[in-house]
UniProtKB/TrEMBL annotation:
<dbReference type="InterPro" id="IPR006657">
    <property type="entry name" value="MoPterin_dinucl-bd_dom"/>
</dbReference>
<keyword id="KW-0004">4Fe-4S</keyword>
<keyword id="KW-0479">Metal-binding</keyword>
<dbReference type="GO" id="GO:0043546">
    <property type="term" value="F:molybdopterin cofactor binding"/>
</dbReference>
<protein>
    <submittedName>
        <fullName>Molybdopterin oxidoreductase family protein</fullName>
    </submittedName>
</protein>
<dbReference type="GO" id="GO:0046872">
    <property type="term" value="F:metal ion binding"/>
</dbReference>
<dbReference type="InterPro" id="IPR050123">
    <property type="entry name" value="Prok_molybdopt-oxidoreductase"/>
</dbReference>
<keyword id="KW-0560">Oxidoreductase</keyword>
<keyword id="KW-0411">Iron-sulfur</keyword>
<dbReference type="InterPro" id="IPR006963">
    <property type="entry name" value="Mopterin_OxRdtase_4Fe-4S_dom"/>
</dbReference>
<dbReference type="Pfam" id="PF01568">
    <property type="entry name" value="Molydop_binding"/>
</dbReference>
<dbReference type="InterPro" id="IPR006656">
    <property type="entry name" value="Mopterin_OxRdtase"/>
</dbReference>
<feature type="domain" description="4Fe-4S Mo/W bis-MGD-type">
    <location>
        <begin position="1"/>
        <end position="58"/>
    </location>
</feature>
<dbReference type="Pfam" id="PF04879">
    <property type="entry name" value="Molybdop_Fe4S4"/>
</dbReference>
<keyword id="KW-0408">Iron</keyword>
<dbReference type="Pfam" id="PF00384">
    <property type="entry name" value="Molybdopterin"/>
</dbReference>
<dbReference type="GO" id="GO:0051539">
    <property type="term" value="F:4 iron, 4 sulfur cluster binding"/>
</dbReference>
Length: 711
């Protein structure tokens, strides 16, 4: 029996795990690592099931290649050659823009995903670049780009020191947090209250997080910008501000928010006006305070506007870049992703809907248009890495149909699922425990400065390829160098670029793979001048101290000051005012996350499905009665319809219904998931409605009708 330690790669909480394995590599148990200085032994039900997930018999062990219409197991050589032929044909006949690439969420949780995403994108040379960013956090990044000049300068709540936390549209007690890496988020919320701090949650549902709070405010979906504008209005009109950083645009901000009184907001968002005023006063009076928001407001029609307003409140109350407020992590890796040019969007536009490029990508919400619309530049080939578009993207069923029609598709994914079933070639990465792990991206949003590297626990089998090799070979094929080209040469090039003028360091680097060499380079060039060897010697992770103010290093707007009223945001305030609120009679659909789920890909593990983890429609009992609903209901939207079991609950606001996403399993090879299939929430979400500033999809406040199903 062996004991091994590693960081859990499933969600954003970066918990340290302690695994027991037998001689065959079978995982006997998974516990929290008590010696991890950051997670201190915490583990959630998903982390505890990492062994079962990793050993899922449905994970693909060999590449699949389509022959005579059927996916069949093949050798790696055959599979890479099939990719070379398939992509080569499309590129030579239709040009590079005819190939689209999509990077899904786990791309950002693997070392190889981080390392090869840019090289693969560049060697494909296409404008059709898509990722989970535009069905998730793009509004947050655009807001940071507009305010600070850097879309990666994301401030996180200083959870362990704050005196007041306002959570809007996030449920970290269940999701464990996002763009805010904090193991045991629930425990940290309890600690906040134990030390006398205050927790307020604004959410259309009384979530697990809301249940832990001092106060929960039911807010009508999609109306958060009204709530926040009224808070800003109150802070300014009552002169409650204490701005202690350099800002531009205070007068423009004052003018923009002038009409947005708490009384006006209350009618729209359903939070009483006196509560809005009191909230503004409490935020201003607290010794320190942080406002935090996530998916509930990012995936909405005014997503960027809302993200901007949240940080405006943090700035006005003197809590930006200050202990107990929101702060910037100082990661152990060199911040090579910091911008070298001013933040702009729209460097190119999408062909069909003329939507602007954002951070080098086009919106996922227009992928189906680009696939289906004939003409010059139509997408004919798809490359997906770690993504399940059919269940995760707005109007997934339309993508399902569109993907069936592409000339060639290659997927890097361990599962044959709703999306990868359309592939001509599937290249499966090995088990998680066979890969080294370092959270390159999450390490930039931790609530304490912290670093932890996990070497691979199990060796690769002779018939397996590392995810690094798979992505390197794809990159080389896309670059026209062919299936036989040497991945090591590509790795050297990438590491050389990372080192730049410090190329002399190359001889000192160590690591068993390209991503490990790159990590070593980034650590050595990073703020703490660590090395991979030092991290390997400390398998429980290294605490690098509490967050410290560092705004001055990060702001890169033309003026060097924080832009409080970017023109694009002032315009969004105007657009919001011109937009009539949904009438009271309109039922609005929102999502929800479930403790034992993670998007679409954990449902094939028996211990993680069933029980409370079911795909049901939450409906308030008054609406159940008013609509005359029975056990199942028909839910209809502009995009489509589903029939789903009804779960009456007082935890949801009247006039609002909630359906979790990631369900609707069909057509792949995941027998357990299919037994617990559920329905696809994204059959209801509408790809034609987006946040126009970031291009982000809208998953919340979707207008629906709900009716009784007879027979
Ligand atoms: N258990 C579990 N954990 C996960 C995931 C998972 O699927 N399951 N997914 C991971 C991923 S990819 C991410 S990005 C994070 C997301 O992390 P969170 O953002 O914390 O996750 P959600 O549960 O989607 O929280 C959104 C909340 O917003 C509320 N909401 C919906 N519409 C509105 C609205 O208009 N206004 C307001 N104020 N609230 C609204 C919902 O009721 C919900 O409680 O979670 C990660 N962790
Ligand atoms: N209605 C609605 N839709 C949503 C959301 C919502 O709140 N409501 N949330 C959105 C959010 S926040 C996100 S992040 C997206 C997620 O969107 P996606 O990333 O497209 O979807 P996932 O379900 O996370 O799919 C992950 C895929 O990666 C594969 N995978 C798992 N591990 C690995 C690995 O190590 N390597 C590789 N190569 N592949 C791996 C899985 O098999 C699966 O196919 O969904 C979005 N969709
Ligand atoms: S909270 Fe997230 S990182 Fe921690 S054990 Fe659970 S799934 Fe893993
Ligand atoms: Mo996400």
């Amino acid at each position: 029996m062996t004991i091994a330690h590693r960081t859990c790669p499933i969600c954003d909480a970066v918990c340290g795990l302690r695994l027991q394995l037998d001689d065959t590599g079978h995982v006997l148990s998974v516990r929290g690592d008590p010696d991890d200085p950051f997670s201190r032994g915490y583990v959630c039900p998903k982390g505890a099931s990492l062994g079962a997930l990793d050993e899922d018999p449905s994970r693909l062990r060999h590449p699949l290649v389509r022959v005579d219409g059927e996916l069949r197991e093949s050798s790696w050589e055959e599979a890479f050659e099939a990719v070379e032929r398939g992509l080569g044909r499309v590129i030579s006949e239709h040009g590079r823009d005819a190939v689209a690439v999509y990077f899904g969420n786990p791309t950002f949780h693997t070392m190889a995903g981080f390392m090869y995403r840019m090289p693969l994108t560049q060697s494909l040379g296409t404008r059709n670049v898509y990722s989970a960013s535009t069905i998730d956090q793009a509004p947050k990044q655009v807001a940071c780009g507009l305010m600070l000049g850097d879309p990666f300068a994301i401030a996180v709540p200083d959870l362990d020191r704050t005196d007041f936390l306002l959570v809007i549209g996030a449920n970290p007690a269940e999701s464990h947090g996002s763009l805010c890496a904090a193991p045991d988020f629930p425990g940290r919320l309890k600690a906040l209250r134990r030390r006398g701090g205050r927790l307020v949650v604004a959410d259309p549902r009384r979530t697990r997080t809301a249940a832990m709070a001092d106060e929960h405010l039911f807010v009508r979906p999609g109306t958060d910008p009204h709530l926040l504008l009224a808070i800003v209005h109150t802070l300014l009109s009552e002169e409650l501000t204490s701005i202690d950083i350099e800002v531009d645009g205070l007068d423009e901000l004052r003018e923009a928010v002038a009409p947005h009184t708490p009384e006006a907001a209350a009618q729209i968002c359903r939070v009483p006006a006196d509560r809005i005023t009191a909230l503004a006063r409490e935020l201003a009076a607290a010794p320190s305070a942080a406002v935090y928001t996530r998916v509930g407001t990012c995936t909405s029609e005014f997503g960027t506007l809302t993200q901007w307003l949240v940080d405006v409140v943090n700035v006005l109350t003197g809590n930006f870049d200050r202990p107990g407020g929101v702060m910037f992590t100082r990661p152990a890796i060199a911040e090579i992703f910091r911008p070298r040019e001013p933040f702009t969007t729209g460097n190119w536009r999408s062909r069909v809907r003329d939507l602007p490029e954002v951070m080098g990508e086009l919106p996922v919400a227009t992928l189906a248009d680009e696939l289906e619309t004939p003409g010059e530049g139509q997408i004919r080939a798809m490359v997906t890495v770690a993504g399940n578009l059919v269940l995760s993207a707005p109007n997934g069923p339309r993508l399902d149909r569109a993907l069936a029609g592409v000339d060639f598709m290659v997927c890097v994914d361990p599962y044959l699922n709703e999306t990868t079933r359309h592939a001509d070639v599937i290249l499966p990465p090995p088990r998680m425990l066979q890969m080294p792990h370092y959270d390159f991206l999450l390490s930039t949003v931790t609530v304490r400065n912290y670093a932890r590297f996990s070497p691979a626990i199990l060796p690769l089998g002779p018939d397996q390829r590392s995810e690094a090799e798979i992505l390197a070979r794809l990159t080389l094929i896309a670059a026209g160098q062919g299936a036989q080209a040497d991945p090591a040469a590509l790795d050297e090039m990438i590491v050389g670029q990372v080192l730049g003028e410090a190329s002399g360091l190359r001889a000192e680097l160590s690591g068993d793979s390209g991503p490990e060499l790159m990590l070593d380079a980034l650590l050595r060039l990073g703020a703490y001048e660590l090395s991979l060897k030092e991290l390997i010697a400390q398998p429980h992770g290294v605490d690098l101290g509490p967050l410290e103010p560092r705004l001055g290093e990060l702001v890169c707007t033309p003026s060097g000051r924080v832009a409080l009223a970017p023109e694009a945001m002032v315009e969004e305030v105007r657009r919001l005012r011109a937009r009539p609120a949904a009438p009271d009679s309109q039922l609005l659909l929102i999502g929800r996350r479930q403790l034992r789920s993670n998007n679409s890909w954990l449902h094939n593990v028996p211990v993680l499905v069933g029980g409370a983890n079911r795909c049901t429609l939450h409906v308030h009992p008054d609406d159940v009665a008013g609509l005359g609903l029975g056990e199942t209901a028909l839910v209809r939207s502009a995009a489509g319809e589903v029939v789903v079991p009804v779960e009456p609950t007082e935890s949801i606001m009247p006039g609002v219904v909630s359906l979790p996403h990631g369900w609707g399993h069909a057509g792949g090879d995941q027998p357990v998931a299919v037994q617990h299939a559920g329905v696809n929430a994204n059959a209801l979400t509408d790809e034609t409605v987006i946040d126009p500033v970031s291009g982000n999809a809208v998953f919340n406040a979707v207008p629906v009708t709900v009716s009784k199903v007879t027979a």
